[in-house]
Amino acid sequence: MDLIFSAVDVLARWDVMLALLVGAVGGVAIGAIPGVGPAVAIAILLPATFSMDPIVGLTLLLGIYGSSMYGGSIPAILINTPGTAVNALTTYDGFPMTLRGEGRRALSLAYSASFLGGLFSVICLIFLSPVLAKIAPMFGSREIFLAALLGLVLVVVAHKGQMAIAAALAGFGILIGTVGLEPAAYTRRFTFGQSWLAGGLDLIVVVLGLFALSQAFLLLTMDDEKIRLPRSRGSLFQGFRELARHPRVAAISASFGVVMGMIPGVGEFTAQFMSYTSARKLSKNPKAFGHGSSEGLIASETANNAVPAAAMIPLLALGIPGEALTAMMLSVFYVHNVVPGPGLFQNDMDFVVALYIALLVLNVIVVGFLLVSTGWLVHLTRIPNRFLGMCILLLSFVGVYSIRNSAMDCIIAAVFGLLGFVLKRLNMPIVPIILGMVLGGIMEVKLRASLARVKTPLDFIDRPIAFLLFCIIVIILVSTIWRVWREWRPVDRRSMQKKASNTFAKRISGRSHRHFENRKKQQRRRRFYDHVGS
């Protein structure tokens, strides 16, 4: 109880509560605008949070992170356009309900399911905090290095179908993270004699370029769409009653969100897919999924809102971000000399609990705000794309220049913005670059520190947690290679011959059919000309 009271004292400040309120309301509004998303908003606000207290800056960013998915469900349900990327699955069942005139019912279900997912994940974290406080001191340099390596492997494996591209981009992120003075002997790396590269490439500059500027370029090249909002009936308060009729779907989906959020590199997409799939398998009416099923909507919204609080576990306990948004929050810790990891749970447990309570209060504020303001928020979907692009472009360059008052940082951000624009147009992932940049620095520092105690390669995994992490990495790599090999192995020769023969027969029959059709046409023309001539 003393710990909870001290955490409440940390939060009971006007600037903290104002940051929480602004983050909650701003996150909902940003999520309701298609094409922006929390990553762009957090990237723009990062320079401003460096001048705030750690709890104020993190509360503001957590407010945007945790509430944007609430707002992202509004355009996903009403106009079939997800406000954030993780609300894409919401369109499967939300928009068909809107077409039936049940838009308010769908919004109410989305709000209530999101609230349940967020509440469940925060409660789990509060009860897991004592366990984390005991496990975190067991992580030394070797364990943190292997945990960072595991996060990097999971990030690559999570991009199914694009693993080679994700690995290459993660390697590129590690490469640009090594530019500048190296941390041990302070020798210059990859500076090419340029003094402005001696300080390295700033993470915030790269983040603003890859996320904010690239999105601005994308919006500026898009055409403005005329959006018509459909009429809907029902009450925004009926979703809580309907949610109570599907406790099994809600509980399973929230559990998937918590578990997937704790694993670095996995995140909302995997949690949504697994919860939606399991809900459809357990449903009495699986054919309704994708055609306006309330269970499908509950599964997707509960899972994605259970992830943000759970994603804070690897960040706070080990200092390892699991995705781009938590990587941005890590920079706020570093600027204020607050080092996430084992020491944070030992020395600043009240700070950790204060963050959890802030997430709990955040969900209450967001739901209350949405229930009274949805009618106004839906009009945010009508903001023109090019106007949004110019606003993001202006705010991004202002944020970049305010970091170090350097025009060179603006040029670097513009270069990375063009790179991000190209990657988005090619449907390639951007997150591996940021995580490679962050995790690469952690891996280098921890590897150097651990090599002083290692004489043979086996000494690196001679402790239980290190050996467990090593085994997990090996199992993931072997299973992934096996799965890829099974998908790409040559087809049986007989089946190939049979398939080739069938294809050949189809081609021959098609050609003969076209040949006879052409002959018939020629005969008809001759008869016509003969008739005309006669």
Description:
It is a single chain. With 534 residues, the protein is mainly alpha-helical. The chain has helices spanning 2-11, 14-32, 37-49, 54-78, 90-99, 103-135, 141-158, 163-177, 203-220, 239-243, 247-262, 267-282, 294-305, 307-318, 324-335, 342-347, 349-377, 385-404, 407-425, 431-451, 464-488, 493-533, and strands spanning 180-181, 188-189. The protein has a two-stranded antiparallel sheet. Helix 1 (2-11) crosses helix 17 (349-377).
SSE blueprint:
Elements: H1 2-11, H2 14-32, H3 37-49, H4 54-78, H5 90-99, H6 103-135, H7 141-158, H8 163-177, E1 180-181, E2 188-189, H9 203-220, H10 239-243, H11 247-262, H12 267-282, H13 294-305, H14 307-318, H15 324-335, H16 342-347, H17 349-377, H18 385-404, H19 407-425, H20 431-451, H21 464-488, H22 493-533
Antiparallel strand pairs: 1-2
Helix pairs in contact: 1-17, 2-4, 2-17, 3-4, 3-9, 3-15, 3-18, 4-5, 4-6, 4-15, 4-17, 5-6, 5-13, 6-11, 6-13, 6-14, 6-17, 7-8, 7-20, 7-21, 8-20, 9-18, 9-19, 11-12, 11-13, 11-14, 12-13, 18-19
